[in-house]
Amino acid sequence: MKVIKTKKQRGSFLLRIAILSFAVYIVFALVNQQVQISERSQELAELQEQIRIQEIKNDDIKHSLEAGDEENSEYIERVAREDLNYARPGERVFVNIAGD
Q1: At 82, is the secondary structure helix, strand, or coil?
Q2: Could you report the per-residue pLDDT of 34-45, keeping only the tens digit for each?
Q3: 84 near 78, Cβ under 8 Å?
Q4: What is the pLDDT of residues 12-61, one digit of tens each?
Q5: I want to staple 80 with a disulfide (CB 3.0 to 4.6 A). Which of 9, 62, 86, 88 is the partner?
Q6: What is d(CA 39, CA 27) in angstroms, rounded to the nearest whole number?
Q7: Angle CA 47–50–51, to nearest 5
Q8: Coil, strand or helix: which one is 21?
Q9: Measured between alpha carbons, how far is 80 from 66 in angstroms, rounded to an integer?
């Protein structure tokens, strides 16, 4: 009886290395994606907290404006005139072009 020796194929060794490399790449990519997802989730939670805080502040301002306090209306008018450069309807505003 004759024993036939089979030649080992080099292609199968290279194929195994290629598959192993691809698997390592996929695992690395998945881990990287999970890290990014957790970071984005944390950022989202922080932004939602900031939104809640700002909504509370807006509600407080809205309630104080609806109350119609004389002190608040004077403050609002002063801020509108000085900071936002607003004027009442029909009011003339003079600008000093001399720079003083």
Answers
A1: helix
A2: 999 999 999 999
A3: no
A4: 888 899 999 999 999 999 999 999 999 999 999 999 999 999 999 888 87
A5: 86
A6: 19
A7: 90
A8: helix
A9: 17
Please determine, for residue 1, whether its predicted confidence score (pLDDT) is greater than 70.
no
Contacts of 13 by beta carbon, 8 Å cutoff, 6+ apart: none
What tokens were used for 57? 């502040």
Q: How far apart are CA 60 and CA 80, in angstroms?
A: 19
- DSSP-derived secondary structure letter, 8: P
Q: What is the pLDDT of residues 63-82, one digit of tens each?
A: 877 776 666 677 778 888 88
Euclidean distance between CA atoms 57 and 62, whole angstroms: 9
State the residue for tokens 């990519």.
Answer: 29
8 within 8 A of 15, measured Cβ to Cβ: no
User: pTM higher than 0.85 for the full model?
Assistant: no
- Average pLDDT of the chain? 85
